[in-house]
Write a structure and sequence with these properties.
Layout: H1 6-35, H2 37-42, H3 46-50, H4 53-71, H5 78-91, H6 97-113, H7 119-147, E1 155-165, E2 170-177, E3 191-197, E4 203-209, E5 219-224, H8 235-243, E6 249-253, E7 268-273, H9 277-289, E8 296-302, H10 311-320, E9 324-330, E10 347-348, E11 363-367, H11 370-382, E12 390-393
Parallel strand pairs: 7-8, 7-11, 8-9, 9-10, 11-12
Antiparallel strand pairs: 1-2, 1-6, 2-5, 3-4, 3-6
Helix pairs in contact: 1-4, 1-6, 1-7, 5-7, 6-7, 9-10
The structure holds flavin-adenine dinucleotide and protoporphyrin IX containing FE.
Flavin-adenine dinucleotide (FAD) binds next to helix 3, strand 4, strand 5 and helix 8.
């Protein structure tokens, strides 16, 4: 909770700090990387720095946290903190690094807002920062303990035991610990980070959802090559497509991620688009392998059947679940669809949940590009599904955090 002294100061300055937070975050990253260039090279995602998404996510999350301290004192934005903490843990962030971030963030705040940052204002925002930082550190500490990893020590060497071209743009990799033991446990829906050593010596990290159920000797990830329609080719996905082959060793984190199934047998909606079906495949595979008979509506949208990664498997998993129905949409459905079982050719166009019979008490899991998730979420909210039962995974910095 914010102190009595800080509350009115945050209330008075939230509008000005909120509207300047984008500039503050931009300057913060410049200061941070000037002082510690290795952090940009080996920890932060250079693409997200170049396209500005990470600073939006950081700014949005801090402003949302401050707003919550004012409007709902005594509650915590658990979902937002979990999302950030899982991402941090998958990168091996340590508690001592919060002092470094604090130093450069507050230097940026003072530079951008100038005289408006009196001692009183700085102290009040300091309180907000440390409330948020300590909440994150507490969740990250628990995640490291649950993973059996000392703080920040999340990296393992894993050998590529299989590689398959799934579609023109998607390759899947099977991974097993280098010592040959079976890959460890995880919860369906979670992801790992992969750290790639690139040609310029940078060690860039990206996350990949585990795309098959736990309990097998190998983990599987499925990587779509990012062609970069408006920017350069994606660094790590291109590297994996071009350089990662069976027998090679990758540096992979232990699994993290909060998009996991609730206990119980309530109905589910699993909605994905494009490469966003990777966590959904793991969830379906898990439901099949545990003999679940809960009602599952699974929805997938893609450009064409040929672009639909793991299409045959996706269809087979949905058919293997007694309580499941699968609905497919393809922008160009005619394209290469001979493998579809009867009635599973897919409809033409964008996914539209309007005509589907959905249980009112469903819990929804969404994964795909933001416009797809926005449309599906909107449909669900209009049907009266409460926001807290709509979970989602964004394959990049979560720009919804500040909503
Ligand atoms: C939880 C989670 C799970 C994920 N699961 C999967 C998965 O299962 N499968 C999968 O394929 N992906 C997954 N992703 C996405 C993955 O982590 C990477 O983001 C993706 O592979 C692209 O990484 P990259 O290094 O190839 O591209 P990057 O180099 O990071 O580039 C990403 C985009 O930014 C643009 N960009 C880069 N630099 C600039 C610049 N200077 N100016 C303008 N634009 C620029 C690029 O053109 C590209 O479009 C997941 C992400 C998260 C967070
Ligand atoms: C209170 C302090 C902090 C806040 C509010 C914060 C917030 C965030 C947010 C919102 C994200 C995006 C999460 C997502 O993917 O959706 C993120 C990612 C990240 N954070 Fe933090 N963070 C904090 C501290 C730190 C610290 C101390 C470090 C270590 C130097 C750090 C390093 C990172 C990195 C490397 C990423 C991933 C960046 C990327 O993939 O582009 N953060 N953080």
């Amino acid at each position: 909770m914010l102190s009595e002294q800080a509350t009115p100061v945050i209330r008075a300055t939230l509008p000005i700090v909120g509207s300047a937070m984008g500039d503050i975050a931009e300057l913060f990253y410049r200061k941070l990387f000037d002082a510690r260039p290795a952090l940009l090279r080996d920890l932060f995602n250079r693409g997200n720095q170049a396209n500005g998404e990470q600073r939006q996510a950081l700014a949005g999350s801090i402003v949302a946290f401050a707003g919550m301290l004012l409007e709902q004192p005594g509650t915590r934005p658990d979902a937002m903190l979990a999302r950030i903490a899982h991402k941090h843990a998958s990168l091996g962030i340590t508690s001592d690094q919060y002092k470094i971030v604090h130093h450069h963030l507050f230097a940026a705040l003072a530079d951008v807002l100038g005289d408006a940052v009196t001692d009183e204002v700085a102290e009040a925002w300091d309180e907000v920062y440390w409330l948020m930082a300590n909440a994150l550190i507490a969740v990250e500490t628990r995640l490291y303990q649950e993973a059996g990893a000392p703080e920040g020590e999340v990296w393992r060497s894993m050998e590529i035991t299989g590689r398959r071209q799934e579609t023109a743009d998607v390759v899947s990799f099977l991974l097993r610990p280098r010592d040959g033991r079976p890959a460890g446990a995880f919860r369906a829906g979670q992801y790992v980070s992969v750290r790639a050593e690139l040609a310029d010596g940078a060690r860039q990290i990206r996350q990949y959802s585990l795309s098959a159920a736990p309990g097998r000797p190998d983990w599987r990830i499925s990587v779509k090559r990012a062609h970069g329609a408006t920017g350069p080719e994606g660094e790590v996905s291109t590297w994996l497509h071009e350089h990662a082959h069976p027998g090679d060793v990758l540096t992979v984190s232990v699994p993290f991620g909060d998009l996991v199934l609730p206990e119980g047998d309530g109905p589910l909606l699993l909605a994905s688009a494009g490469i966003g079906n990777t966590p959904v495949l793991a969830l379906l595979d898990h439901l099949v392998s545990t003999g679940a008979d809960r009602r599952v509506v699974t929805v997938h949208a893609d450009r064409t059947p040929a672009d639909h990664a793991h299409r045959v498997e996706h269809l087979a998993l949905a058919r293997a679940l007694p309580g499941a129905r699968l609905h497919l949409w393809y922008e160009s459905p005619g394209h290469d669809a001979p493998d579809a079982p009867d009635g599973q050719d897919g409809q033409a166009g964008q996914a539209d949940l309007g005509g589907l019979d959905l249980p009112e008490d469903l819990t929804a899991y969404l994964c795909g590009p933001l416009p797809f998730m926005r449309a599906v979420r909107g449909d669900l909210l209009r049907r009266g599904i409460p926001a807290e039962r709509i979970h989602y995974e964004v394959f990049g910095p979560d720009l919804w955090l500040g909503r």
